[in-house]
Predict the 3D structure of the following.
Amino acid sequence: MPIKFKPSATVRDRQTKQLKTEHYYIKCMSKQALFDAINEGKVKPKVRRKCIVELERRGVKIVWKTDPETLIV
């Protein structure tokens, strides 16, 4: 089974009254969404690691930068 980014959701179309299940597989997420998840502080470490592994699988090189203002000396 593919790796999930977040749990699947059931969405109801208001006009046709039909239910549609949306799956949030990590392979379908955009690079920007994956980078946003990595840089957010609210994401669980497991999901953060999944995003890093997916970007590496796609061949994206991640360059880690530290903000000099946030460093404690």
Observations:
- The two ends are 46 Å apart (CA to CA).
- Residues 4-57 form one domain.
- The longest strand covers residues 4-12.
- The longest helix spans residues 45-57.
